[in-house]
Write a structure and sequence with these properties.
Chain lengths: 338, 338
Amino acid sequence: MRIAVIPGDGIGQEVISAALRVLARIGDVVDGGIRCDVFDWGADKWLAESVGLPEGSLEVLRHEYDAILLGAFGDPRIPDMAHGRDILLGLRRGLDLCVNYRPVPLQGGSLDVYRENTQGLYVGVGGTVCVGNTAQVAIDECVYTRDTVERFMQYCLADLRRRGRARVTLVHKSNAVPNTGGLWQDVFRRELGRLPGLEGTEEYVDAFCYHLIRDPTRYEGVVTSNLFGDIVSDIGAALMGGLGLAASASINPETGFGLFEPVHGSAPDIAGTGAANPYGALMCVVLLLRHFGLETVANTLHSSLSEAVGTRAATPDVGGTGTTSAFTDEVLCRLNAK
Amino acid sequence: MRIAVIPGDGIGQEVISAALRVLARIGDVVDGGIRCDVFDWGADKWLAESVGLPEGSLEVLRHEYDAILLGAFGDPRIPDMAHGRDILLGLRRGLDLCVNYRPVPLQGGSLDVYRENTQGLYVGVGGTVCVGNTAQVAIDECVYTRDTVERFMQYCLADLRRRGRARVTLVHKSNAVPNTGGLWQDVFRRELGRLPGLEGTEEYVDAFCYHLIRDPTRYEGVVTSNLFGDIVSDIGAALMGGLGLAASASINPETGFGLFEPVHGSAPDIAGTGAANPYGALMCVVLLLRHFGLETVANTLHSSLSEAVGTRAATPDVGGTGTTSAFTDEVLCRLNAK
Ligand SMILES: CC(C)[C@H](C(=O)O)[C@@H](O)C(=O)O
Ligand SMILES: CC(C)[C@H](C(=O)O)[C@@H](O)C(=O)O
């Protein structure tokens, strides 16, 4: 397995160091080993060379790697996160990673959230006329192609079935946004019709967020568009006990190429203090191993993580007194013992 | 004061009956009295006559009334809520009610949410090409004019100052939706610059929802666009203890015309059982009285409501054993005693 590692900025560097320690250990027991190459994309490179996603890198990633492991982007010197946007949106679109998967473990159940990751309001189509005067009109277009919604939906519904889920909810807003909303409803209903055994419901995004907060266990699987998914998955992170625990996988449904990334940001305020929680990054390693069929070692790492987060070695954000490296030691220690 | 009353469907009828009882009582003590005329718009009329918002009604409302008091729309016979959309969006756009205000009372503080109510993704601009085949492309446009954002922002910031607020947060997504997002940021910064004493911060909608759930008291006032406001205000309702308690006011910033509406739906499942909580509708009466400068009677009603909701006469959704009318009796009884 060949992994392109992009630590990024701030605590991204620190949690990825933790993940690399764990990957090195796992590489020893996995057939063929795991090759990790580190790429220095991020704020420093952007400021020094005005380069976000370097030219030609999509080709390199596509041909020489199976997956990307990414830390986080964000730097106080670049308040609008132009570099992060350039790299992240460039990778999602360029590698056609249209499925963003985020598991949300909850007390009394768990939720699988799938966000479409390449189109919708993120297509960058639109513009502004009469800049600065009262007549100014600004337009951003929400665009979806049936092809992308279908590929997304087929992957997600099949994946939910693989995970043994019985129910899936489409989160939409077709009462206000009828064209793209209607396309999503149409594809959802058709694809569900082809997959007996999965029961579908549809909810408006506002009502869905309301119910998700009041009783998250009423849902099993959620499929939704790019912007709603952005919001819903952060709500999921809030409900599961914090961004420090959340992991995500962005998948190309045809090639299986995956980008694995913790959900938290670069947290410049705690960078360098040792307070960064590597749980999300290590959960990314779990998702990565599972995605490539290494179910057994993924499960072993997952249970080591779950145990370690209950000890004092956990970082302060989740109630422990440990540091990034102390928590990682605890995980490795438990991993060795299994 | 002349109020056009639109009970609508389901429990809308029931909670508006409660509000009319309270308004009748208050009308006795208010200079000039309160005239309430009931309009039968809703599901039955839609099904019988194919009429949502009847022709000419915008004119009537504009010239003969100061405000609308609305119950709720929604009927199982009209699954896509076409009638509710026709009436609600027709009133918002037709009467230019661009400011939607929702107070969110919380433990340890309270939050004022302002949602722009007429543009953004709700403008109904867009379409679909190649319907049904793989090449299908669906487009919904998010459109904002500077004029509307300015009028909205000026009203909201002034209103926040009137309420003694020190801080306001712009909720946006300019990193993904740059044209409208940028317009909102520009207007927000300019208008704040003219209003010393109000401190502004800007947050991405995903991060904002995350923090709102984890610690709602970190915000005082929120200004945001139509779709984000739709989601954020339902999250607010979830945090304040349920949709049954939430009220909203939609205001035309120039004329002061207002539409007052509880946030809950028509709840066909409990219609007719007496379980409907009239608290939201009665809070609408509080907002209405306050909007028209009747501060003293508004406060008296508000404290009667707050007291009554702590008694057994409260409806089951908020922990009581009462009914719609028992709770209203309790409120009236306390109102009389003041
Ligand atoms: C940085 C931003 C464009 C991005 C998004 O909205 O997709 C982020 O919020 C995320 O979820 O990865
Ligand atoms: C019915 C629907 C179009 C409406 C909206 O999204 O504005 C509703 O959710 C609301 O908030 O009043």
